[in-house]
Specification:
mainly alpha, MetI-like fold, 0% strand, elongated
C-alpha cells in the first residue's frame, strides 16, 4: 500500500511548487488577459479604430485615454484592436515554424546520414543571417503585407525547432523502448509518433512559449519598417512607426510599444517557468 501511494505523493510535491512560481503565474495571467482583450476588442473599445472623428494629436485625457494620432483616431481603441492582429498572427507563426522545424529535425535525427546532413546544412544557411535581415529580404521578394511577413518569419524561424528536435531524437533513437518498437515491425513514422513524440513534446512546448514573444517582436519590427501590416490597419509595430514621425507626441508610440513589451515579458516569464518545470536537468526548481 505504501509503495502505491508514494509516487502520487511525490508527484504532488513536485507539482505544487509549479503553481507557486509568481513569474509564471504573472506571465500566464497577462497572456490570458491580452487574449480576452483581443477577442472582446470590438465591445470594449470606446471608438472605432479607423474612424477619424476627433481632433488630431490630442494628448491623453479623460475622453481619449491614450490620446489621438495624426489622423484623429483614438490610440486606445487602436491598441486594443492591435491585439487582434499581433497576437493571433504571432501564434500562427510559432505553430507553423514549430511544426515545420520539428518534422524536419525529427527526420534528420532519426534517419541520419545524408538526410541529416542536407537538412542541417539548410538550417545552418538560414541561421547564418540575422533573422530580421533575412525576413526583410523574403518580404521584399514576396511583397509587403502581414501574411507575407508571417511566411517570411516562418522561413527564418524553423531551424531553431529543427535543431532542438534533432538533438533530442539523437539521444532517443537508440533507447531500448525505441529499438524494441522497431524490432516488433513498426514503421519509422509510427515509431516517431508513438514512442519519440511524447518524449520531445515538453521541451518543444517550452521553446514555443519562449519564441512567442520573439515572434511578436519581429512581426512588429517588420510592420515598423513598412513590410508587415499596411495602413490603415491597427497594428502595434505600424503604430510605433507612425508615432516615430511625431517625436514630441510621445503617446502615439509609447502605448503600442508598451503593449509589445508586455507580451514579450509575459511570454518570457511563462517560458522560463515551463522550462524549469519540464527540464529535469534544471536546477531552479522551487523546493
Amino acid at each position: 500500500m505504501t509503495e502505491t501511494t508514494l509516487p502520487s505523493h511525490r508527484a504532488g510535491r513536485r507539482l505544487r511548487p509549479v503553481w507557486m512560481q509568481p513569474l509564471g503565474l504573472i506571465g500566464a495571467a497577462i497572456l490570458i488577459a491580452l487574449a480576452l482583450v483581443a477577442v472582446l476588442a470590438p465591445l470594449i473599445a470606446p471608438y472605432d479604430p479607423l474612424t477619424q472623428e476627433a481632433r488630431r494629436l490630442m494628448p491623453p485625457s479623460a475622453e481619449h485615454w491614450f490620446g489621438t494620432d495624426q489622423l484623429g483616431r483614438d490610440v486606445f481603441s487602436r491598441v486594443l484592436h492591435g491585439a487582434r492582429l499581433s497576437l493571433p498572427y504571432a501564434l500562427q507563426l510559432v505553430v507553423l515554424a514549430g511544426l515545420l522545424g520539428t518534422v524536419l529535425g525529427a527526420i534528420a535525427g532519426y534517419f541520419g546520414g545524408w538526410v541529416d546532413g542536407l537538412i542541417m546544412r539548410m538550417a545552418d544557411l538560414v541561421l547564418a543571417f540575422p533573422d530580421i535581415i533575412l525576413a526583410m529580404a523574403v518580404v521584399a521578394a514576396l511583397g509587403p503585407g502581414l501574411f507575407n511577413a508571417v511566411l517570411a518569419v516562418v522561413i527564418v524561424s524553423w531551424p531553431i525547432y529543427a535543431r532542438v528536435a534533432r538533438s533530442m531524437i539523437l539521444s532517443l533513437r537508440n533507447e531500448p523502448f525505441v529499438l524494441s518498437r522497431r524490432l516488433l515491425g513498426a514503421s519509422s513514422a509510427r515509431t516517431l509518433w508513438s514512442e519519440v513524440r511524447p518524449n520531445i513534446t515538453g521541451p518543444l512546448v517550452v521553446l514555443v512559449a519562449l519564441e512567442y514573444g520573439h515572434a511578436v517582436l519581429i512581426l512588429s519590427g517588420l510592420s515598423f519598417l513598412g513590410l508587415g501590416a499596411q495602413p490603415p490597419a491597427a497594428e502595434w509595430g505600424a503604430m510605433v512607426s507612425e508615432g516615430a514621425k511625431y517625436f514630441d507626441k510621445w503617446w502615439m508610440s509609447v502605448f503600442p510599444g508598451l503593449a509589445i513589451l508586455l507580451v514579450v515579458m509575459a511570454a518570457n516569464f511563462l517560458g522560463d517557468t515551463l522550462r524549469d518545470v519540464i527540464d529535469p536537468r534544471s536546477k531552479r526548481h522551487l523546493s
